[in-house]
Amino acid sequence: MNFRSLMFGVAAASLVALSFGATTDAKAEKVFRYATTGDILGLDPQANNEGPTNTMKGNLYGRLVHRKPDLSLDPDLAKSWEQIDEVTWRFHLRDGVTFHNGNAFNADDVVYSFTRQKQESSSMAFVLATVEAVNKVDDMTVDMITKGPDPILMLNMPNFYIVDKEWVEANNGFEVIDVSGSTNFMNANANGTGPFKLVEWVQDNRIVLVPFENYWNKANIESNIDKAIFTPIPNDATRVAALLSGEIDLMYPVPLQDIKRLQAEPNTDAMEGPELRTIFFGFDQHRDELLDMPGSGKNPFKDVRVRQAFFHAIDIEAIKRVVMRGASKPTGLMIANGINGFQDDMNGRLAHDPEKAKSLLKEAGYPDGFPITFDCPNDRYVNDEAICTSVVPMLERIGIKITPNFQTKSLHFNKIGKPQDYNTSFYMLGWTPGSYDALNPLMQLMSINGDGRGTWNSGRYSNTRIEELVGLISVEMDSDKRNEMIREAFQIHQDEVGHIPLHQQALAWGLRTDTVKKVWQRPFNDVDLRYVTMN
């Protein structure tokens, strides 16, 4: 097998592109079949802020600015931009672009997309939280007005997807319904300006895409595929078997125990790399009475000693050694090294100490523990169910009575998120900041008051000073002052044990070297079809 590895150090993250030397009949239809653990949550570009779902949106919809494989920003529907003053950004739009249905793209679509994505019901509203207005200058120019100086506005733009105003209005799709599944028109259909267009989505079965024949940048994308078929395959063994048999060309994640096997087979390989996603646990710190303790009038998680006890009970090194087979990096922070604002000297964890945990529970008035429902996905993160399963006896050892609720990610996210009013007591979640900046998790996970905040703060953690700091960080242009405020916010969050960070997981993709010529493995663990080429 002849292959070439390219490593890029961008934003302290690693990217890998592999090229393989096998050849096939050039006249054959090039169908790229790939799979991961679960289906997307929906097709609405302004709903369901989740990694694989956002990636699929990016195949279908254009943004003003696109993020390339090396994580740099690249003009997309905006051909250029400049800052007019400290709160005004002018975007010059690309002429001659059409949506998949043939409608012309123009400034009205950008203004309409802004209004739609700013709805309170949109989990993508955080992207535009600092934007006061988007104003049409002429058909191909818009001004974006921020509420104050915004140091990371452009870093958020790759998550601002542009919809066709005429098409959405014709189908009564303006309202954003942020619930998983094909439950409404915008979540079940797609009409973007992106490099691929939707053929069909059969939920939990397949998504079929084909290249958009009138894509504005068709001549410059790397992809040579004629069709892409995405299939969710939750079972690890089934996913590996499908790759080995040639039924699919790429799959992720590879079960850690199968990496060497795929690397040893003549027509398969396993690509490995770091991921910037932090896996963590959260608690309900909002309700006065825990959902699992009806009639008690108590919520133990409001007491920091209880949260500390849970942290001390978790043996992260055992999880790394046994469950993750060494392919994880334990962390004490909610962001990874490589995200702007990471504080290396703050990355320590509370020690694994079950006896200390029992003592803390006793001090808090729970010497015999208490019951909780433990919400965990079983098809979203690397070994997610296995991690949660391993944690159950760790918590039971200190007296916690656990009812496991491990289910597919769409049900999990609905339960712990907005659709079911954050219906959880204790849960697992993972997070990669889409902007690669610490403000993103501070807004999304560690605060609740203000535009775009708290979308995935399922335990409703809040601290008055952190809420204040988030507002200050969002407009501070001096990087040193900004990082000091980020540090202060993280310190408060750590002291209060707002969440329990676990680790950053490693990436592992399996692919067929006889069919795939080149694919980019990016640190946010997605497959951007415009960078896939086949033999």
Produce the secondary structure layout.
Elements (H helix, E strand, L loop, with lengths): L2 E8 L2 E8 L10 E6 L14 H10 L4 E3 L5 E3 L2 E8 L2 E6 L13 H11 L13 E8 L2 E6 L6 H4 L8 H6 L14 H4 L7 E7 L3 E6 L15 E6 L3 H10 L4 E2 L7 H6 L3 E16 L20 H10 L2 H8 L4 E3 L23 H10 L7 E7 L6 H13 L4 E7 L1 H8 L9 E6 L7 H6 L19 H10 L5 H18 L2 E14 L3 E6 L11 E2 L1
Parallel strand pairs: 3-12, 3-13, 16-17, 16-18
Antiparallel strand pairs: 1-2, 2-20, 4-5, 6-7, 7-9, 8-9, 10-11, 11-12, 13-19, 14-18, 14-19, 15-19, 20-21
Walkthrough of the structure:
With 535 residues, the chain is of the alpha+beta class. The protein folds into 2 domains: 3-251 and 514-534, Periplasmic binding protein-like II (D-Maltodextrin-Binding Protein, domain 2, 3-Layer(aba) Sandwich), CATH 3.40.190; 276-506, Roll (Dipeptide-binding Protein, domain 3). The chain is built from 15 helices and 21 strands. Strands 3, 10, 11, 12, 13, 14, 15, 16, 17, 18 and 19 form an 11-stranded mixed β-sheet that branches. Residues 1-15 and 20-26 have low confidence and may be disordered. The longest helix has 18 residues, at 479-496. Helix 8 runs antiparallel to helix 10 (354-363).
